[in-house]
Amino acid sequence: ETGVTQTPRHLVMGMTNKKSLKCEQHLGHNAMYWYKQSAKKPLELMFVYSLEERVENNSVPSRFSPECPNSSHLFLHLHTLQPEDSALYLCASSQERGRITGELFFGEGSRLTVL
Amino acid sequence: AQKITQTQPGMFVQEKEAVTLDCTYDTSDQSYGLFWYKQPSSGEMIFLIYQGSYDEQNATEGRYSLNFQKARKSANLVISASQLGDSAMYFCAMREVENSNYQLIWGAGTKLIIKP
Question: Tens digits of per-residue pLDDT, B76-108?
């Protein structure tokens, strides 16, 4: 099993659909993250969970709804998205949140296209 | 103002040559960390190297080294003896304690292409 696994790898959805992205980490980490990566823009942090509690929510529209049922799983529920939400969504985990040295371990991302 | 600046949107380098990817940062924190990540076409971000603001020596990891110039606020990545598999996007990132609550702040990236 790879460290951080994301499914699906590719998703095409209409603006009225509801879908979910799934992330699973097998590293025993306590913090998990959702990032949005758009072309030619720096990574944008969307949400941070630490020990299953949401600790960061960076002004993300309510059409994105995260869920962290346990420390190994993270979901991003999507509904009534806009075409500008098309991007690569990256999940990451780290051992814990509040360390300067702690590197993030990323999944391969879910490429989302909103029609 | 941008906190992390990567001035090279793209670079072409001949295989086996060394390559330097530029990164400058802006912070008023005394304690911070600097990271480099590689993103191949598969999409996964791969951690390469870390430099702490109080580290006196430049970080090295195999063929990767970080040229840390604190007074100039520069943290350039040096890849020695480049290989075709080094072709990827490279991102510089910074973590501050006081100003950003441990969030990683990312640069826009540099696309590196290694020519055979």
Answer: 999 999 999 999 999 999 998 776 667 889 999
